Amino acid sequence: MMYANLNQGREPPLSQKSRHSVISTDDPCKHAASLRNWSQEYIQLSPGKFSGSIVEASFGPVQVFRETIRQCIDEKANPRRDSYTLGVPVAVGEDGYWQGSQLKRDSLITLRPNQELYFRTPRTSAILVAVIDCASFDAFAQNTSNLEILPIITQSNSTQVLTPRSAQHLRATFNNVLTSIISRPDILDHPASVNEITETVMDASLRALQIPCLREKPGRNTHSVQRAIVERAREYIIANHENPLTVAKLSAHMKMSRRGLHHAFINVVGINTMTYLRYVRLHGVKKSLLTADPGDSVSEVAFRWGFWHLGMFSSYYKTLFGELPSVTLQKALNSL
Questions:
Q1: pTM of the entire structure?
Q2: N or C: which end of the chain has fewer CB within 10 A?
Q3: Does 239 lie in the same domain as 134?
Q4: 162 in the same domain as 250
């Protein structure tokens, strides 16, 4: 497919102004909003205090970042439009799934242009990722290798693992780029350096896409079906947050048995339906508290999300997020 078709209706490219950031977070909602040019929704699935960090640099048509997360998170995300996304884990625990495929140490992780990401992180996760403007990456691949990126990256969506040497080369390239920019930001003041770094990232990315991968035998694609079930359920839960749902009501709306719904949630997010119902509402409360006005109260926000027993609500909230809701509210008000 020619790039002209990809380019229809695309947003303007990134500003030529070079940017970089190093961010530490202690809140999943704030973390989701901290990655530049990404639209993200996070649901924390494992109980306890969240911690995370983002080291990011944007230059020319490229964004490179390292994201570290310490809690199991269900991510729904979109990078900037008309871009390719490609990366590799740095450290990954068990039960991580990228687009329904189990994440391994040397997995090649990719997104096609304008493809929505579904990523269930393991309890500890660190990934290195590059997001590259379609037009620039297509032109680079055509000029250097006479290749088209889209067919290659579409094929790579199947479950596959890079060879250890190839995965390490990709990690080292992305990590070296970030380390150099963070330690010497003035590198990006010089167009020649920006061009060289841009081509270094695109060359390493293209090499990773071209290298034969250790393909696994594909299984039945039940995960994508169950993921769609979970997403439909989440949308319905949020739309009806003022009228808290029971599992029976959700099953009736989804036209599914309780057992089938239970299996979908366990297989996709690792928790049962009732717990997920509560977690979505708790995240709704947390987001509301983080944007609260001086006149707002914890009880008012909790009631709005259907938590009528304040003692149980506070216990649920502290177990999941590692702090009382009053502490979250006070932090938000202190930052005004």
A1: 0.85
A2: C
A3: no
A4: no
Domain termination residue (choose one: 180, 199, 215): 215
**Together in a domain, 293 and 207:** no
CATH code for the domain of 235: 1.10.10.60
For residues 227 and 268, the answer to whether their CB atoms sit within 8 Å is yes
CATH number, domain containing residue 112: 2.60.120.10
Q: Reduced to 3 states, what is the DSSP secondary structure of residue 188?
A: helix
What tens-digit pLDDT sequence spans the chain (336 residues)? Answer: 222 222 333 333 334 444 899 999 999 999 999 999 999 999 999 999 999 999 999 999 999 999 999 999 999 999 999 999 999 999 888 889 998 888 899 999 999 999 999 999 999 999 999 999 999 999 999 998 898 999 888 876 555 889 999 999 999 999 999 999 999 999 999 999 999 999 999 999 999 998 755 544 444 457 788 888 999 998 898 888 777 788 888 999 999 998 999 999 998 999 999 999 999 999 999 999 999 999 899 999 999 888 989 999 999 999 999 999 999 999 999 987
Residue 256 is part of which domain span?
Answer: 222-334
Same domain, 208 and 296: no
Q: Among residues 41, 25, 49, which one has the least CA distance to residue 321?
A: 49
